[in-house]
Amino acid sequence: MPLARRPFAALAVPATSTISFAHRNLPRLLLQARESVMTHTRPSLRAHGLSDQQWRVLRVLGEHGAVETGRIASEAFIPGPSLTGVLARMERDGLITRERDPADQRRTVVQATPAGRKLARALARSIEAHYGSVEQALGKRKLQTLYALLDELIALEQAE
Predict the structure, then answer these.
(1) pTM, rounded to two decimals
(2) Considering Cα of 86, then 89, then 95, then 97, what sign does the dihedral take?
(3) Which of 1, 24, 52, 117 is paired with 31 by a 20 to 30 Å CA distance?
(4) Pairing of strands 96-101, 67-68
(5) Taking Cα atoms as reference points, which of 51, 44, 53 lies closest to residue 73?
(6) Each residue's pLDDT tens digit, 87-135
C-alpha cells in the first residue's frame, strides 16, 4: 500500500521517541515574545473597543498619515480580504475615512479621522510607557540591540 493511503495509526511513532533539534524554535519564541508584549497592550485596546488589527492600522496611519490600502496591508500584516472588513468597521466607528485616489481611481487612500488620531495618541502614551519599562528592565543598549537583530533577521529572511 502506498504511504499516502496507509491509515494514520500505521504511521504513529512511539511516544518515547524524540527528535533532537540543534536550534531553539525561533518562530515559537517570536510568537511567545509578541504575546508577552501584547498581554500588556490588549487591555488598553479592548477598553477602547479596538482589536489588535485595528490598532496596527491606526499605528500605520499615525506613522505615515494618509496611506494606500496596499501599504496598510503590508505594514500592518493584515491580508487584503481581512483588511477590507477591518477598515469597514473602523470607518463605521468614525476612526478612519477612505477615499479613491484622484490620480488613480483603482487605489483607495485611508487616513485617520480626528477621533482616530486622538485615540491613537492616547493609546500611544500607555504603550510607550510600557516600552519604557521594558527599556528600563533590559537597558537601552540591549533593547536597541534587540531591535537591530530583529531588523537584520527580517531582512535576511526576506532576501531569500
Answers:
(1) 0.82
(2) positive
(3) 117
(4) unpaired
(5) 53
(6) 999 999 999 999 998 888 889 999 999 999 999 999 999 999 999 999 9
- In three-state secondary structure terms, 68 is strand
10 DSSP assignment = G
Counting every residue written for the chain, the total comes to: 160
Amino acid letter, 10: A
Helix (H, G, I), strand (E, B), or coil: what is residue 104?
strand
Do the Cβ atoms of 109 and 65 come closer than 8 Å? no
First to last CA, the chain: 38
Q: What's the pLDDT tens digit per position in 45-102?
A: 999 999 999 999 999 999 999 999 999 999 999 998 999 999 999 999 999 999 998 8
- The rounded distance, in Å, linking the Cα atoms of 101 and 107 is 5
Query: Does residue 45 contact residue 51 with C-beta atoms inside 8 Å?
Result: yes
Residues 6+ apart with CB under 8 A from 130: 37, 40, 41
CA angle in degrees (0–180, nearest 5) for 152-156-159: 135
